[in-house]
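Researcher: Good morning. I'm working through a list of sequences from a screen, and I'd like to move beyond sequence-only analysis. For each chain I'm collecting a predicted structure so we can compare shapes side by side. This is the next one on the list. No need for commentary yet; just the structure.
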Amino acid sequence: MRIEQLECIAAVTRTGSLRRAAGELHLSQPALSETVRNLERELGVDLLDRRRSGARISEQGRELLPHIVEVLESVDRLRRAAHDQHHSSRTVRVGTVNAATVPLLMPAMRDFRSTHPATQVEVIGTQQEDIHRGLREGAFDLGLVNYLLGDDTPPDMETTELLRGRPVVCMRPDSPLAGREVVTPEDLLTEPLIGMRPGYVMHRYTHRLLEGRGLSFSYATDGAELGKLMVAEGLGVTVLPDFSVSGDPLERAGVLVSRPLSDDATRVLVVVQRPRSGSFPRAARELRSTLLVRAARYARLRTGDEAAEEQGGR
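Model: Good morning. Structure tokens for this chain:
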């Protein structure tokens, strides 16, 4: 049994004529008649009443018609779903708080591009709340979000940790703080401080770190990338996760340096999130896998660097 045979029966029923059905399906009338007869032989049922005045669906055919229509509607839904999946997979939309852009997101996008050259990746920088809303509404396929270790994550989101790091102070090499091995919270109050706007994890962390010390941001901005540019321009210092600074082009060029905060055991996580329910296009699924591979590679390299530093310090 073929779908084309069922479509022929439906067309004859709809038009009330073999000739008109053949024209609608762009078939010759003999070809359509033979197609219907083959189906009748397979089912052992006369689906059409053939008379001089034309062909009409038979009583037996009328009883089977709801099943034929159901099959054709299911096939149509399958085709539409496959079409939608194909076209939606041509673009993957990623919402990000601009965390781990250089060590994780950019390498993953480069790897993904090599295997999916026809798929566009849209990267939209915004706050965590907007990313969650976009994921729920279907505006984003994936979200890259920061959490502090121990934070709760939304129960309707599938959350997978990619990286974890510690907060560091990002500054220019000529900053007075650059000569110190570690920076204390009180030290931060001696320099103009560039903070993240409310809605970013590092805004919450910095307020917690400097609580009761008269915190006042000289500047506030959206995301780590703008924060680093403002530091590079000499506007002040900022507090970021170390994975947002390490390997950054500005750091490699010697424009930025970072120093750890004293006596602080806080860990900052980068996670990839997606809704637990709803469709998950293949391209988005594969970009997520690429992010996981890149994160594992970065973690191995970082472990090796830390071991080398420890060995060199002995």
